[in-house]
Amino acid sequence: MSTPMRHGPSQQGRTPSQHPTTAPTPQASTPFSTTQAAAALSPHGPRSSPQQLKKSPATGTLSSGVMSSQPGNPPLNFDSPSAAAALGGLGLDINLDSLNVGGLVGGANRSDEDDRQKRMDATIAALLAFDTGRVSNDGLERLAVRNGFECLWETAGTGSGNDKVLIIAGRTLALEVGIKNHAVYHASLTFNEPSPSLDKHVEKASAIILKDLALGPGESLLTKKLSKFRVNLERLATLDKMSITPGLNCHEAIAGVWESLERLHKWDVERLREDPTLSGKSEENLRVFALFSRHGCPLMHTRGRIGLTLEYWKQHRMRPSATVGDDKAKTWGVLIDCAPASSMVYTPVRVSDKWIGPNIVKTNPMDDEGMPATGPLLDWLEPPNTLLPPTEETKSEGGLESAALSASRPVDVVFMATFDPPVIVTHGVAMEIYKISAFNAPLSSSTFDNLLFPVTEGVNYDPSEPRVMEFTQTVPVWTDIRKVKEMPSLKAHKNTLIVDKPVYGHVVTHVPISHPKDLIAMLPLLRQYAFLSLLLTNSFKPQEGRPLLPQQSTPNEGTLNMRRTDRDLQDFMSQQRDASEPLKVDIVLSAHPIPRLQLVFPFRRSTAVINLEIQLNGKVHIVSDNIFSDIESEVPRSQGKRQPLTRRVFAQKLEDCENIDIWVEFIKFTLE
Questions:
Q1: N or C terminus of the chain: which is more exposed, having fewer CB within 10 Å?
Q2: Strands (DSSP E) found in 250-390
């Protein structure tokens, strides 16, 4: 099978004199056609003799003023008394030395042309982002060429004229797409250089590409879009463009990071298998447990996305049916990619699969290496730098300077970690995350609560004042513990979020990293705020599969006019409530220095007040309460199943259910 031919060197940027076929352009008769004006407009300065540049009121002023902006030209000299009186004598300080003829003649036109081109490019980019077109022969080729690939069409082995193979070739990879009558039936990704770390993942990548292009159930040629394929092709193109052959293969660099993180993940699973409390868990359950409680789970080409993702948090993670790579549950992860270094001063990309030692942990730690508080002391390694060989052009040049340049040089590419989804944290936590990666990013001026729940347009909002937000949520409730397998009834909760002391927040989207250990150090903080956002979202946003109750517009939405530091807890019992009335639950959020939630709800004949802390790794700690203290010594046998209901047990229940409203109903069902 033939491959696409590389084009010859481009003629772009060459001057007309370098083109042998370029004919001289006849000089037009314009006011600037004089010898002096032509010299002034020439970028090489005047070519006439000095006698032709006599200064006079008629020509000397124009020529000298024009030429004064060019290096080596004579300075401006007003030898005419009338010109001096007309300009200087009237108090006009006009300095023609600062003028540039190119700016006078063509600067405005070039500026307008550049602005017009930028607007056109922005419009085209917006249209392409909105609709990339449909899957077809021409659509595939246009998309590949737009991403910098070379394309070659060949007839398939069947011999049919409508059955073709499109070869999309780059520096390091080739993608073959079999298409018949504009319908894709085959896709295969290969890399130009054999690499065991890459070859083991090509089948999964090819399957994702085929799923993006082939017709699925209920799809037709009129509805099949290129949107999903475009995202994956752009990711492949980005890595391919930054790769340099020989010397740097960005695909192989990312695969090497996966190798090290995968060894760490397997070590985590082995340690969890030794835990007696997890003896009944399956292999998949242990992988999920390692995902959210240890060092994450690295996955290559998963969830329809080509690339490496380090997953660290998962919704419904405690369910027995939870699996790694499940598309149904929401998952938090970090996409590890490459990006140009540009002006960033970071350790460049290193191609290696030995980022961690074979024993994973250090066997003989040094005295100054204390055991970390969040886990074992891992044996991180520093792979050697990846250097590029000198180019042929540099080798052919002589001299001492070229000898210095001919030495191997580092790559101008860094690892980039992109958070999916972006994590909303406070300013202090954002500074900690950026400190780990030595990244300087501008912090936002929005508050933490406004980033979680944007204020409705038109609502009175003052970031310096407390904020109140209400939402009526439906909660599944079981009235009999023996009937948990039956369909629950739905109960309404009138949730009120009170932000008494707003703090500034920030959305962490991406950070450059120099080593996988940078990401491992961020995981406890990322899990902490991922779980906090999950708790608040489950209480104050509509949930899939549950009916949305009509929300009442109250004057308390927005900013309080009067600062309230203490909640009036007697308003819950001030009136008789019908059984069908929504249960009022107040949630007071304090995000600094540690995320804290104060829950206030009716309990028995009084009011329950529970203060929680969301700690590192998404752990829940009950700081204080007025209900659990009375039941820790005496546990109802019928409801407690002879298990001591301690604060830790109730905190674990909240971690398991990930829902404040369900947790409140569990407390009321168990203790009331």
A1: N
A2: 297-302, 305-314, 331-340, 356-361, 378-380, 387-388
> Coil, strand or helix: which one is 576?
coil
How many Cα atoms occupy the beta-carbon half-sphere of 271 within 13 Å? 16
CA distance 572 to 552: 18
pLDDT range class, residue 121, cuts 50, 70, 90: confident
In the chain, the N- to C-terminal Cα span, in Å, equals 76
Q: Residue 601 — pLDDT band, cuts 50, 70, 90?
A: very high
pLDDT at residue 365, as a whole number: 72
SS3 183: strand
The tokens describing 103, both together, are 């700016």
Partners of residue 498 on adjacent β-strands: 468, 588
594/295 Cα distance (integer angstroms):
22
Provide the sign of the torsion angle of the four alpha carbons 224, 226, 228, 233, taken in this order.
Answer: positive
Q: What are phi and psi of 298, to 5 degrees?
A: -80, 135
**106 has pLDDT over 90:** no
CA distances from 30 to 63, 494, 542 (A): 16, 81, 72
Q: Are 52 and 35 in contact (CB under 8 A)?
A: yes
Listed in sequence order, the DSSP H helices in 216-375 are 227-242, 250-273, 283-293
Most confident of 46-55, 152-161, 474-483, 505-514: 505-514
| Cα gap 474→492, rounded to integer Å | 5
The answer to whether the bond into 246 is cis (omega within 30° of 0) is yes
Rounded to 5 degrees, what angle do the CA atoms 130, 134, 135 make?
135
pLDDT (0 to 100) of residue 619: 96
Radius of gyration of the chain (CA): 34
Question: Which ranges constitute the DSSP H helices of 91-213?
Answer: 101-102, 108-130, 137-146, 196-199, 202-213
Condensed to tens digits (0 to 9), the pLDDT of residues 437-460 reads 888 888 888 999 999 999 888 888
What are the tens digits of pLDDT across the range 270-295? 999 999 999 889 999 999 999 999 99
**What is the Cα–Cα distance from 290 to 79, expressed in whole angstroms?**
87
Confidence of residue 296 (pLDDT cuts 50, 70, 90): very high
Burial of 625 (0-12, 13-18, 19+ CB in 10 A): middle
Q: Where are the alpha helices (DSSP H) in 510-634?
A: 516-540
Least confident stretch, 52-61, 111-120, 135-144, 311-320: 52-61
10 Å CB burial of residue 499 (0-12, 13-18, 19+) is buried
DSSP secondary structure, 447-487, as one string: BHHHHHSPPPTTS---TTS-EEEEEEEEEEE-S-GGGTTSP
User: Whose structure tokens read 């520096």?
Assistant: 171
Nearest-angstrom CA–CA distance, 299 and 646 = 38
Cis peptide before 421 (omega within 30 of 0): yes
The encoded tokens of residue 221 equal 């040629």
- The answer to whether residues 230 and 212 touch, using CB atoms and an 8 Å cutoff, is no
CA-based nearest residue to 74, from 104, 57, 54, 94: 54
pLDDT of residue 489: 83
C-alpha pair distances (Å), 472 with each of 448, 477, 496: 22, 15, 9
**Interatomic CA distance for residues 397 and 69, integer angstroms:** 35
Tokens of 216: 């699925």
Tokens matching residue 506:
């920030």
Tell me what pLDDT residue 157 has: 74
Structure tokens at 560: 């309080």
- If one counts every other C-beta atom within 10 angstroms of the C-beta of residue 65, the result is 20
pTM listed for this prediction = 0.76
- The 10s digit of each residue's pLDDT in 162-217 is 899 999 999 999 999 999 999 999 999 999 988 999 999 999 999 999 999 999 99
Q: Is the pLDDT of residue 149 over 70?
A: yes
